[in-house]
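Students often ask why we bother encoding 3D structure as a string. The short answer is that it lets us treat folding as translation between two languages. Here is a chain of 191 residues written in the first language.
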Amino acid sequence: MPRTRRLNEEIELRQVEEQDAEAFFLLIERNRQHLRTWLGWLDNVHTIEDERDFLRMSYSQFLEDRAASYAILHQGKLIGNINFHPINWQHGRAEIGYMLDSAHEGHGIMTLACQTLLTIAFDDLQLNKVEIRCATGNTRSCAIPRRLGFVEEGVLRHAELLYDHYIDHRLFGMLASEWRARQAVSNWLAE
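And here it is in the second language, the structure alphabet:
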């Protein structure tokens, strides 16, 4: 899997590293209330050391080809994360998860990052399917797979315990054949 990928003049994806712990922790702290609406793992991250432990685990999974986690950098500053978790080689499938600093939402950054992970998944890793799961009420997050042409496959009821209540997830999927067809049309239109 690639360790870095430049998306444009300002945005780059880079494999997360242990030394990113403080920057990720500060990102989480700045956005904790906003992220808490949709992400259930925030109560596991109280210190920089908690984040460092998570990054060590993520890197270990990367080395074992079980997952890949990328820092999203805007002009060199960490503004988010996007990852494959987990990669199921037996079935040729991976799930994309993501988070972004609220100050950078609405600029197409996450759509571009997801599009790049689709290229990695289908072209580099030769996977057959990529899934994205979003809380049904998270309209911004659900807009990303829709924009990229994913098929909405259904709603998973009570898919996650979010602190004190259950939330439903929308399941979006894209097959390698669908991705290649979309790429062929894009290339044809660009000519």
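Translate back mentally: The radius of gyration is 16 Å. Keep this in mind for the problem set.
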